[in-house]
TrEMBL record:
Gene3D superfamilies, alphabetized: 3.40.190.80, Fructose-1,6-Bisphosphatase, subunit A, domain 1
InterPro entries from the UniProt entry: DPNP, Inositol_monoP_metal-BS, Inositol_monoP_superfamily, Inositol_monophosphatase-like, Inositol_monophosphatase_CS
Pro residues bias: start-end ranges: 48-59
Composition skew (Low complexity), residue ranges: 60-70
Origin organism lineage: Eukaryota, Viridiplantae, Streptophyta, Embryophyta, Tracheophyta
NCBIfam families, A to Z: bisphos_HAL2
Binding site for Mg(2+): E144, D204, I206, D207, D356
Keyword Phosphoprotein: no
Protein name: 3'(2'),5'-bisphosphate nucleotidase
Domain of life: Eukaryota
PANTHER family on file: 3'(2'),5'-BISPHOSPHATE NUCLEOTIDASE, PHOSPHATASE
Cofactor(s) the protein needs: Mg(2+)
Keyword terms of this UniProt record: Hydrolase, Magnesium, Metal-binding
């Protein structure tokens, strides 16, 4: 079945040039518009253009209205409330930057500075909010970004823009204002190595940077490790529809902006990013029949071997085409049952980072699913900034996992055999 592909105009950076901050090889393609007569054998999650969301700033703290957190008497309640607030504020900053990016008249400008601005701004906000909300606790943060490039002379304009954005965003919640130096220090608090001892926050300030650039999916992903285990996780997904993306074509006008959260032993929940009182418990799908299952994978072929996923899905008997989405929004969507399987097989030599999976893993686990590597081992977040794992990551519900693992291992074996015959 060939699913309909959605199309949208893609526009890039109007913000000040900061070419020194652009990682090489990561520039977006000039245009992603595709001819309507060329449907692809996969579903691509796109948004209507221009996005009609972008909720107004809230006057109450992001996590405070949740009866769920308030009712629970177990540990990590205050950490979870702080994490929700931090991720929600960071999401607001990212939305502002993405809105400027998408509504600009400047098309296809190969300048990634808005992404850089949003990544740094989001990391600074999360760091500042966690310190502010949890002042008496020791603070260790393992995060993706650092300030080295921002300290260069040519980046001073960009740094000012980030500080402005951070101040604009936090002023709705706190009567404080930060300087450029405060922002740099907040960003660099993310240099912790993590590990098996003590508590460490784990942050991806924007996961799915390429999706963010295209106006597609991205996530603010924040988790807490305690003695090497993930004990809570929050995923802010500003562009994810409130209702299932399995029916995206029918519901494309639905509201978007979801906050997923989970705390060990307490289940997983989703609320609207713009309405914290809307929370609901979520569960992975109960499907046991692969023919009824659909699977998620990275939009970017550079991030995951699409051919291998296809072979696995075929072996398992999955009928639906893959749904390609950027970021840990995949974990959130799977946790609420939009799809049954997430397959991720990076190219040889790539090392997965803990911030790309920690928050997503606990959200899925608390919703009744689980994530393993291709050998069936649970992911180990206690080894520092990287995940040491066998071949890839697979995520599904407990009923499908045994047959999925089988299909994964047989497909990898067949792939290796055919490679050795070349
Ligand atoms: N060659 C590669 N293989 C696998 N993952 C990669 C990769 N290059 C980058 N990534 C990671 O893939 C993440 C995005 O995942 P997805 O494909 O699911 O959207 C990126 O997160 P960032 O966008 O935070 O850098 C990055 O960490
Ligand atoms: Mg990431
Ligand atoms: Mg990132
Ligand atoms: Mg990155």
């Amino acid at each position: 079945m060939a699913s309909r592909v959605r199309f949208s105009r893609t526009i890039f950076s109007p913000l000040p040039s900061a070419s020194a901050l652009i990682p090489s090889g990561s520039l977006p393609p000039a245009s992603l518009s595709l001819p309507l007569s060329n449907p692809k054998p996969y579903r691509r999650l796109r948004l209507p253009f221009p996005p009609s969301h972008l909720p107004p700033p809230r006057s109450s703290p992001a996590g405070s209205a949740s009866p769920v957190a308030a009712m629970s008497s177990s540990s990590y309640d205050k950490e979870l409330a702080a994490a929700k607030k931090a991720a929600s504020l960071a999401a607001r900053l990212c939305q502002k930057v993405q809105k400027a990016l998408l509504t600009s008249d400047v098309q296809s400008k190969a300048d990634k500075s808005p992404v850089t601005v949003a990544d740094y701004g989001s990391q600074a906000i999360v760091s500042l909010v966690l310190r502010k909300e949890l002042p008496s606790e020791s603070f260790s943060l393992v995060a993706e970004e650092d300030s080295a490039d921002l300290r260069k002379d040519e980046a001073q304009e960009t740094l000012k823009r980030i500080t402005e954005l951070v101040n604009d965003t936090i002023s709705s919640e706190y009567s404080m204002s930060v300087s450029d130096e405060d922002v740099l220090i907040a960003i660099d608090s993310g240099k912790s190595e993590g590990g098996p001892v003590g508590q460490h926050w784990v942050l991806d300030p924007i996961d799915g940077t390429k999706g963010f650039l295209r106006g597609d999916q991205y996530a603010i992903a924040l988790a807490l490790l305690d003695e090497g285990k993930v004990v809570l996780g929050v995923l802010g997904c500003p562009n994810l529809p409130h209702t299932s993306i399995a029916n995206l074509d029918r519901h494309s006008q639905n509201k978007i902006g979801c906050l997923f959260y989970a705390k060990t032993g307490d289940g997983a929940y989703m609320q609207s990013l713009s309405d914290p009182s809307s929370n609901a418990k979520i569960h992975v799908t109960a499907t046991e029949n692969p023919a009824d299952a659909s699977f998620f994978e990275s939009y970017e072929a550079a991030h995951s071997l699409h051919d291998l996923s296809k072979a696995i899905a075929e072996k398992l008997g999955v009928q639906a085409p893959p749904v390609r989405i950027d970021s840990q929004a995949k974990y959130g969507a799977l946790a609420r049952g939009d799809g049954a399987i997430y397959l991720r097989f990076p190219h040889k030599g790539y090392r997965e980072k803990i911030w790309d999976h920690a928050a997503g893993c606990i959200v899925v686990a608390e919703a009744g699913g689980f994530a393993t590597d291709a050998a069936g081992n649970a992911l180990d977040f206690s080894k520092g900034r990287y995940l040491d794992l066998d071949t890839g990551i697979i995520v599904t519900n407990k009923k499908l996992m045994p047959s999925l693992l089988n299909a994964v291992q047989e497909s990898i074996k067949a792939k290796n055999q055919s490679a050795s015959h070349l």
